[in-house]
């Protein structure tokens, strides 16, 4: 849980691993957010159960599978809201240890804003929802485009001023 061991997220991730159920709305929502904000990112699903007796083992296995791939830049562990019993796999020690052992940063997007699990505390970053997790792991291309445009205007002005000063001398 120590804040000093939390790793920063990559600024421009190319491959985003997602640990969640392939059949729920969560994966679809994450893909939509990433596709809208950062279409250069590739989403890699590690499918697993996210509730029930077998879920913790599946989450651990999915994290391990993503960590065995060389070029995953960040991992989102996600599940939609539910009762504490439904979210319980994210409180299991095996899941906490797998998140802690991950070689790449992990963002937890489990439940809704008021839901907290042990996975949230162990992860490098906690998001209040799965969609918010997707927003946190990728930049917004529209914001980047505005920043680049601003820099181009600044550079253009600097170059014009510099060229004008050189002509006078």
Spell out the blueprint of helices and strands.
Layout: E1 15-20, H1 25-37, E2 42-47, H2 55-68, E3 74-79, H3 84-87, H4 93-101, E4 106-110, H5 118-122, E5 125-126, H6 130-137, H7 141-168
Helix pairs in contact: 1-6, 2-4
Description:
The structure is a single chain. This protein has about 170 residues and is of the alpha/beta class. It has helices at about 25-35, 55-70, 85, 95-100, 120, 130-135, 140-169, and strands spanning about 15-20, 40-45, 75-80, 105-110, 125. A five-stranded parallel beta sheet has the order 2-1-3-4-5. The radius of gyration is 20 Å and the shape is elongated. The model has no long low-confidence stretch (mean pLDDT about 95).
Main sheet makeup: 5 strands, parallel
Structural class: alpha/beta
Strand content: 5-15%
Total strands: the figure is 5
Mean pLDDT: 93
The sequence of SSEs as H and E is EHEHEHHEHEHH
Global outline: elongated
Biggest sheet, spatial arrangement of strands: 2-1-3-4-5
The span between the termini is: 62 Å
| Rg value | 20 Å
**Number of alpha- plus pi-helical segments:** 7
